[in-house]
Amino acid sequence: MHFHVPKPLHGWRELVGEVGIIVVGVAIALAGEQAVEWLHWRSVVSQARQALNGELADDLGAMQSRADETQCISRRLSELTTVFRRHLNGQPLALKATLGQPQFPHIESNAWETVVSDGTASHMPLDLRLRYSRFYAGIFWFRDKTDEESEAWSHLSQFDDHDLMTEQDWSALRQWKARAQSLAAKVDANLPQATIRDMAFTLRVEPRPFRFKPASLAARDALCRSMI
Question: What is the pTM of this model?
Fold first, then answer.
């Protein structure tokens, strides 16, 4: 028994040519689709970088404002050590000013969290993605520490009513003062001006100065005035 392979109507050469045209057409279509997708993600990543850099400019401004308070915080904590010693020895406290409060602007990370969750970050070049990741790791560490600092200082504000404080209050505030001092040492060791400049240079982001409300400025000014 013999089997006969059917021949194309116009010959094998023409068939191969037609198949080749189809293959090339499909390849062009796929390449075009990939090009469109590449252009889409390029645009999305560009917009994401604008949002991230704007967010980081504000965050760096907040970090800069904390670095600017270093001297005032350090002096006030030193003065509080003297105040505790006077109280322990039964001496008059002789306070000349209110405690004042450091200002800890809120640190934002919504843009980065969105870029990570919606998959945009995965379309960034690896080096760029790592630079942003390291940048935000520093931002998160700073936010955690200053949140803790803010809590400690909110308790220390009780000093403004020191004439109403009990011995139990004094004992509690000694612990909050020690907490504030420990946190300040960590932040000051890890957040010098050079660190902020280096972080800004990494992604070419300029810190945007933080604008305080009048009440916040008044509390900050009070912090920088001598208390004893």
Answer: 0.80
